[in-house]
Input
Amino acid sequence: MILYEYPLHERVRTYLRLEQLFKRLSTLSGRTDAIDHHFALASMFETLDVAARADLKSDLLKDLDRQKNLLQAFRGNPAISESVLDDTLTKVDQTFEALSNQNGKAGQALIDNDWLMTIRSRIAIPGGTCEFDLPSYHTWQHAPASVRQSDLADWATSLQPLKRSVNVLLKLMRDTGAPQKVMATGGQFQLNLPQGRAYLLVRLGLDEALGLSPELSGNRLMVSIRLMRQGEDKRSHPTNEDTTMELALCA
Output
C-alpha cells in the first residue's frame, strides 16, 4: 500500500514540508559520507527557508492548544485509556512549552553563524560549493565522519522544538482519520466534505501493485481524485478503471 497525503490548509502544507525535510536531515546525518553531510546541510538550509514564515510559530502554538482542547474532551470516555490520554496530553504540554520558550525564529543559532550562512548563500548556486569557492568548507568535508556528525547534531539543536511540534501535531491529526474503502469509478472520485467540521488533511492509500498514482485537489468543501497511469511514453495518462482505495479525512 502506497500512502498519499494532501493538505486542505496552507499551514498543514507547511507542516508536511517540514516533516519531509526533518526526515531527510535525520537520514543523511546518520550516514558517514561527506556527500551525505553536504545534502544534510542543504536540507537544514531548506528547513530554515520553510520556517521563515513570520506566523509559523503562532500557528503551531494555536494548533497545539487546539489539539489539547480536543483531547481534554475525551475525559471520562470509557473507550479511551486515561493513562494513554494523560501521556499524550503531557507530550503536547511539553512540546508547547519548549516551542513557546524558544527565543526568536527556529534555527536562529544557524542564522547567527556567519560560516554556515556563507555556505547557505553558495549552496543555492549550481556547483557553488567547490573547493575553490569555499576552501574551509572543503576542509570540513575531509574531517572524520564522527566530527561532521557531531557538528550537524549541534547545529540542528535549535530546530528541535520546531521538529517536535510538527511531529506531534501531524501524528495527532493523522490519528483522527479512520481509513474507509471507497471506489474510484472510471478512475475518478469526488467527495463533498461533511460540514460542521474543519478537515485539514486527506490520506489516500493505493495498492502499489496497481501501478497507479493520484492527482488530488481539494478545499474545505470537497475532495477530488483522478487516477493516472504511466504509459510507455513515460507520461502520466488518466485511467478509466474502477479502483478501490482507502480514504481517511483528518481534522
